[in-house]
Amino acid sequence: MKSFLFFWLIISISFSISSCGNSEKKEDTIVDEIIETKLDTIIDEVIVTIDSTIIKNVSIEKEKKEEVIPIIPKNPTVKVYDKKKFAFITYEIENFLKWEKFYQEKSDSNARIEYLTNAENESLIGIYEYITSLDDVKKEYQSKQFKLAMKVAGIKSIPKLRVYNFDWVNSKKSNKIYHIAISHEVTDFKKWKKDFFDNAANRGYINIEDLFIATADGNDNLVTVVLGTDNYEMCKSLFTDPEVIAVLKASGVIGELEITYWKVKSY
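RE: above sequence
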């Protein structure tokens, strides 16, 4: 009996020890699983945090790139010209080809009418351009940007500017090499204009084309006529002829004639 009880006690103790051992193992396993789960969760959170940071940084960099202001605005202001008001601008340049390249690249193509060089001085440029208003032109020519542009383009004299209004323009394209600008005052513009067109056939006979008539902005009696010719030397002698001067005076021309001769460089 005693031996049986002793045997049972030993078995019970062994089972208890075994159970305790198993319990400790289970607890260790549970702890390990919890630690692994937490580590996985932490790692996942770190990865997610890193990913979101990268995405955020990429997004920030993208925003920074998008914030860069372009040199040319997406919707630049386009000037509207009424095709009636224009300016004749003259100045001296250092080199024609250098100036021409700059002018073609930087000037407003919608404003251009033509540019020329003086027939007797190729360093003197004449430009016909449409304008919006005299004030706008003055602001542009007085700006720092224009003064810088003058240096880059090789402009070496202060620009002279005159503003006109077209009264009549020949619809036919002219291929004449030279343009003659004649400015003078008249007593009666309507009478002068009638007489001018009455003499058109005589000018045509010596191959002179009527290109346009303009009046000074603010003074309709100050007239400028531009004619086309291939022989400006002939025209120089023509407009000093006493008979021609008498015809002009009879049509109402007063004062001295201001005549300049230009070689066409563009249309």
